[in-house]
Design a protein that fits this description.
single chain, alpha/beta, seven-stranded mixed sheet, 7 helices, 28% helix
């Protein structure tokens, strides 16, 4: 996909998008979660199909199956170490290479997201992070970050911070409140959930 140019809607014209697919997959029996199938497609394919038309800089964070992921992304990143240190380092690595002033962060295991959700996040872009919240519970992997926050997040990482939620809360995020039963925010991060959810 690298080298191709897609028209970018004005709603997300200045936004790179990161799909996080670099975890251990412990709840998936060690499988690469992005390539676990739900219905006719893999989880990462469901999310990528929504995100791809909304940016010309789609980044996937992965630590295995790089050739498969490469077909879905404009850029790939991997953790700088092989001990799966968590999604915060993936976000930091993406901020380093993002081509736009904002980075929209999404997990690979939310196959019911839609473009309206992504545009809601982008519409609140400013100097602070934007993060979805459900009945007081923050969802840091559904967030929009100014790329100018890279140095702050790097400093937090170097000081020992490993939690995405705590790192972003330290930056006083703007909250986008959604009901707890909004199906678009469902994380299918266990095989049992995938079996129950209708494709």
């Amino acid at each position: 996909m690298s080298g191709t140019h897609r028209p970018t809607p004005l709603a997300l014209a200045r936004c790179s998008i990161l799909l996080l697919a670099g975890g251990r997959g412990q709840r998936m029996g060690g499988q690469d979660k992005g390539w676990v199938r739900w219905g006719e497609h893999a989880l990462i394919e469901h999310v990528q199909r929504v995100a791809q038309p909304l940016t010309d800089d789609l980044i996937i964070s992965c630590n295995r199956n790089h050739q498969r992921y490469r077909t879905l992304a404009d850029q790939l990143i991997s953790d700088p170490s092989d001990d799966f240190p968590g999604p915060l380092i993936g976000i930091i690595e993406a901020l380093k290479i993002a081509q736009h002033p904002y980075l929209l962060v999404l997990p690979c295991d939310a196959p019911l997201i839609d473009s309206q959700l992504l545009q809601d996040l982008q519409r609140h872009a400013g100097k602070r992070p934007v993060m979805i919240r459900q009945e007081g519970y923050w969802q840091p992997l559904f967030s929009l970050l100014p790329t100018a926050l890279l140095l702050n997040l790097q400093a937090q990482w170097q000081a020992g911070q490993r939690s995405v939620q705590r790192a972003l809360l330290d930056l006083e995020p703007v909250a986008l409140d959604y009901p707890p039963d909004d199906p678009r925010l469902g994380n299918f991060n266990e095989l049992a959930l995938l079996a129950q959810a209708p494709p």
